[in-house]
Amino acid sequence: MTDPALPVDVLRGQAAYQPWTLRLYDLAIFQVNCRFFWRVPVLELFALFDRNLTEAHLDIGVGTGYLLDRCRAHAPRQAVTLADLNEHSLRHGARRLARYRITTLQADALRALPLPSASFGSASINFLLHCLPGDIRSKARVLDHAAACVRPGGRLFGATVLTQGVRVTPGARAQLAFLNRRGIFHNTHDSLADLRIELAARFPSHRLSVFGCTAVFEAEIP
Predict the structure, then answer these.
(1) Contact 130, 162 (CB under 8 A)
(2) Total-model pTM
(3) Lowest CB count within 10 Å: 48, 137, 170, 182, which one?
(4) Collapsing DSSP states into helix, strand and coil, what is residue 129?
């Protein structure tokens, strides 16, 4: 059960993920939003996983588990820990990925994760940051919490939708304004410059690519 003591903005950001909305999630996000609004090819997101996924992986912000399910880089004894505040996403993702060794953890990514330090080879944060309250500078603690769980030399990667310093089409701007008004997104002030600064401050070796209004990042844990 979600902790009612969490900030209202955090609770609102995850409340949209219900069993019935998760059934529509893959179509809405990967076939419609990525293609027509956010302008990031889904093949780029699969490639992101293929380049960085290890046999002991932490996925923070599960959605439906679509990218983990569809990428090709799984090890024979793939172990995946799914961490999300939303219990419906955890259940949905665990069912979808049941062929692997799955552990679930209900947790707020803005707080330190109750996981052993340096215990994973990789961690992903996909389409989560734009749902969290605050600007990129305040959300960057999620990067710290994720990195603390990955051993040195491991990989941290993900994607987020930005509104500042990137190309936002009129359709995407209208859509993002609506999602922000509803409290589903909180990325009105999320900028590419801030994301670049926060990544560089933490990870000497990292890569940041932009597709439309979507930033795709990957880094090596120092």
Answers:
(1) yes
(2) 0.93
(3) 170
(4) helix
